[in-house]
Amino acid sequence: MAKKLFWVLLIIALTVGMSDTAEGEPNPSDDMAQSNNARSKLRVNLRRRSAGESNFTERLRGAVLRSRRRMNMIEAFVKQRIAGRLDIETPIHLGDYEYLMTVAVGTPPVNFEASLDTGSDLIWTQCMPCKECHNQSTPIFDPSKSSTYSTIPCSNSLCGALELSKTGCNPDCTYNYGYGDASYTAGELAHESFSIGSGNNSLVTSIAFGCSHDTFGNFSQDGGLIGLGRGPLSLISQLGSKVDNKFSYCLYSITDSPSQTSPLIFGDTASLTGAKTIQFIKNSFNPSFWYIPLTGITLNGKAVKIPPGTFDVKSNGVGGMIIDSGTSLTYLTEDAYYPVREAIASAIDLTPTDGSSVELDLCYNTSGQVTLASLTFNFQGGVDYELPVDNLFIQLPGNLLCLAMNESGDALSILGNIQQQNFHILYDNAQNSLSFKPTKCDSL
């Protein structure tokens, strides 16, 4: 099976030194340097990398399989939180990501490639000495060679944010994050200088991260993870006012040339004009996820018959829809998916064909796009997110056209990144809002 389809963030770290004053950060002189770069405007380019995969069908099949595993792990995470136990801190399997981000850590700076994910919080990288570490494409970070590394004591509030994954205080805050497939990463929480961005718009700041000395399981050659969820340990939460508490991205279609680059933007320039805006829903059971207020789905202007309340977040934390950069497909709970599937199939004058070669449920034998005006996600406040056909179906070699959606379990629905492509999407944590606008990404 093919390895996977990557989006790669190339971030060149050229400067070092700035940091915020916080408990366990013995570098107050860096505050002056940081003030010179307040409210930074950061922009990086994402490019897609095909890691040895020879054809689009195999790449898509791999992405679908990874999306299914990821959806299962997110669902397991939600159910564990509801049950009052936490076997996993993040629902993410490191090998399942679509985006990579290159950052620099330490003084002097050391580059590493990390999975970028809006569905989790913790930032971590493999560190020396390693009890057990997987192979990675860049040198493993050695904190003993960095002048800005400092461990975080258990008295720091960020240690408390680890919840049940915290394993000890000696006196440093240690953790063991387990994943749904028995993979794990373990180490200590620390502060370190991270360089993000390049050139005049680079930002070097102290970040709380997991320095992992022990990793085990189905990991790729990535060096760690960059969480962009809503919790206090995530990158956007830690950068905060330095980047106006917001970031945006615009993703090219998976069928576009791999040479195309897609922007990821932090700060002032992440703003959108003429966009539609919805308010995030906060789910106290799962505070790291970006829940969006979906109320219904329409096809060609007609409401799909989905039971009322299907997309509501229930009092026990079940339900709702999250937007997630790391899941390729959109997943709908059973009560929503099958009515949507039936409505789409009824609107298309073609006979469905077998899509098992790419692990997809609704496929047609055709070399052209189907006749389908639009499918629209309806959000609170009368805000509509209208999907063009290119965001709904994927054309594959061999005249195979497949719906880029599937059924999830009963815990939640997920808006995946295929349905986000060719939209400029802005996350504003301060305003608790998500804005979106159809956009040619190369125009940004």
Describe the protein.
The protein has 444 residues and is mainly beta. The chain contains 5 helices and 29 strands. The strands form 5 sheets. A 6-stranded mixed barrel has the order 3-4-11-5-10-9. It is globular, with a radius of gyration of 21 Å.
The profile of the biggest β sheet is: 6 strands, mixed, barrel
In one word, what is the shape?
A: globular
* Relative helix content: 10-25%
Strand content: 25-35%
**pLDDT averaged over residues:** 78
| Quaternary assembly | single chain
Beta strand count: 29
Terminal CA distance reads 35 Å
Provide the gyration radius in Å.
21 Å
The assigned structural class equals mainly beta
What's the tally of helices?
5
Low-confidence stretches: 1-38, 49-53, 82-97
The side-by-side strand order for the widest beta sheet comes to 3-4-11-5-10-9
